[in-house]
UniProtKB/TrEMBL annotation, chains A, B:
GO MF, any single term: DNA-binding transcription factor activity
DNA-binding region: 33-52
Residue ranges annotated for the HTH tetR-type domain, each copy included: 10-70
The species this protein was found in: Hymenobacter jeollabukensis
Pfam families: TetR_N
Keyword set, alphabetical order: DNA-binding, Repressor, Transcription, Transcription regulation
Highest taxon of the lineage: Bacteria
Listed name of the protein: TetR/AcrR family transcriptional regulator
Length: 199, 199
DNA sequence: TTGCTTACTTACTAATAAGTAAGTACGTTT
DNA sequence: AAACGTACTTACTTATTAGTAAGTAAGCAA
């Protein structure tokens, strides 16, 4: 009856991108190959090259999609209308979700380690993506401190950089030491940022 | 006259380990090869295999050496006799040094991204190394809060995990966004941990 | 029905990877 | 002088990598 396709029925191009992203976050850019994707998808490696001629383009497409998602999510009325603490919590949820998915780190954490081996295009796109995220969080923190709903010392931009840096690291720690360790770190972050009344 | 060899005259085995470590921290475990080391050293790849039969053994040797260095440094009278804030500062100096060396992340940050592709031996050794470092820092933080020289909320172990996580991430951020960004993050860390009187 | 486009497969290349086996040059010991 | 261990090199194998070129089957358009 429904004209909507089932959730698994993405077109090949999208399925490649999904799988490549999953492999990237699980294994790093240099440790996944067109063969991995092809085998999992039940096609030949050349089929991946048809959709994404080079690995550089595939990698860039992954960053670009995350960039689009960030902008879309950030500008959603459902998100812009939240209070600063709620916006912070919504951000933390993104990382909690990754941690719960087991061995996935975030895009930044996956690419930063391999950064010097990445094509220049991907390096630049990662900088932009990460810069925009930091800028957004700095705004949230500044607003939160202004209305008394968040507490921290120092410049909002420095604090935003520090919080995001901690989140990047926390998913790597989760991979090595388990999810429990990740939650200790996040609890510490929340305890510090939320004023006692709200905790 | 002096019987001491010049600093560059390490034996091949040590030079291999030095170079492998450098390449690991710059490029990640999967993006450096026996060929890279051999070419830089002016020998053939098989010579590397003579000293370190497999890449797994080479990688494990790198972690083991860092582990030995950590224990030695931590137990040095010159270090144990420092006050907690000074011990913290000494730890930060290790990371500052890496950041200044340009594109090097820390051992944990380099291996965590590739963690799922690492041999089991290396995974276990990284866990031990990181666990010991966290344990040490937790002790420093607890002592510092007890004598009023450091301030933070929450459990010392949680705070230690968070601080180290931030340091792991900060070197990755430095690689992507430059050293300046790294110093913002470290300044934020110090400002929060050192009580106003000491800042 | 002819021709074009899409989405592939088959079959390949060239480069690089880790790892091995056999040989060699040199210094030390016996 | 003979034997041995150390520290390699040469020459190789097997596997995997990204990437390419040519062919093909199916669907749609003119």
């Amino acid at each position: 009856m429904s004209t909507a396709a089932p959730a698994t029925a993405f077109d090949t191009r999208t399925r490649i991108l999904n799988l490549a992203e999953e492999l990237l976050l699980a294994r790093g850019f240099n440790a996944f190959s067109y063969q991995h994707i092809a085998k999992e998808l039940g096609v030949k490696p050349a089929a991946i090259h048809y959709h994404y001629p080079s690995k550089e383009e595939l990698g860039a497409a992954i960053i670009q999609r995350q960039q689009r998602r960030l902008r879309k999510w950030r500008d959603l009325p459902r998100v812009t209308e939240l209070t600063p603490p709620q916006q912070l919590e919504a951000l933390l949820d993104v990382y909690r979700h990754r941690a719960a998915r087991g061995p996935q780190v975030c895009l930044f954490g996956a690419l930063a380690a391999d950064f010097l081996t990445l094509p220049a295009v991907m390096q630049q796109e990662l900088r932009t993506f990460s810069g925009e995220l930091t800028h957004w969080l700095a705004g949230v923190l500044a607003a939160g401190r202004a209305d008394g709903s968040l507490r921290f010392i120092g410049h909002p931009f420095s604090k935003a950089a520090q919080v995001l840096t901690t989140l990047v690291g926390s998913l790597q720690v989760a991979r090595v030491h388990g999810e429990e360790q990740f939650h200790y770190i996040l609890r510490q972050l929340r305890t510090e940022l939320l004023p006692p009344s709200a905790a």
